[in-house]
């Protein structure tokens, strides 16, 4: 069952990482100043985040799941939170680590970029990964969290990661889980990242 979930996650990430903003990852441009950050609550998805504008919502249907995407295309920058709920929870630490390793491999391959940094992270004790990928002249930063049977992917893409460092930090810092049952876990990340 875990192998099926891992393969399905890889497929979803393959399709989903590039679909909404593939073209814009490689467009070099000067980023406009962000005027207003809008707090957003996705109650039925269990998260909150602030976006540089009101996020648009779209969906991608898979064989067994539906992914909801909340995004702002603040050209040339792109910000998104993707949420997918799976049928079966996975809480075994090794299985979660294997899934995150597989996700990393698929995200990097499908972005056609080069992994420039990876670190283990967690949110409220739930394991995750932060990946920084060079894609053309842009930098794609994504945080992926596995929470029981939910996959959260928080994405920021910009042609100037240094100039937009504060905006990226604000976006990632604003993401939080809101459901009571998501607030703690005993499957925090391992100390070593397998590559």
Word description of this protein:
A 7-stranded antiparallel beta sheet has the order 3-4-5-9-8-7-6, with helices on both faces. It has a 3-stranded antiparallel beta sheet with strand order 1-2-10. It has helices spanning 2-18, 22-25, 93-111, 165-174; strands at residues 38-42, 47-51, 56-61, 66-74, 77-85, 114-123, 126-135, 138-147, 150-158, 176-177. It is of the alpha+beta class. Helix content is 26%, strand content 38%. The model is unreliable at 1-32 and 186-195 (pLDDT under 50). It is built from 4 helices and 10 strands. It has one domain (2-177): Protein Transport Mog1p, Chain A, CATH 3.40.1000.
Low-confidence stretches: 1-32, 186-195
Radius of gyration: 16 Å
The total of beta strands comes to 10
Distance between the termini: 23 Å
Based on helices, strands and strand pairing, what is the structural class? alpha+beta
CATH class: Alpha Beta
For the record, the count of structural domains works out to 1
Which of globular, elongated, flat, extended, rod-shaped describes the shape? globular
Can you tell me the CATH topology? Protein Transport Mog1p, Chain A
Characterize the biggest β-sheet.
7 strands, antiparallel
Order of helices and strands: HHEEEEEHEEEEHE
Helix share, percent: 25-40%
Per DSSP, what share of the residues sits in E-state strands of 2 or more residues? 35-45%
- Residue-averaged pLDDT, rounded? 81
CATH homologous superfamily (4th level) name: Mog1/PsbP, alpha/beta/alpha sandwich
What is the CATH architecture term? 3-Layer(aba) Sandwich
List the total number of helices.
4
Query: Largest sheet, order of strands side by side?
Result: 3-4-5-9-8-7-6
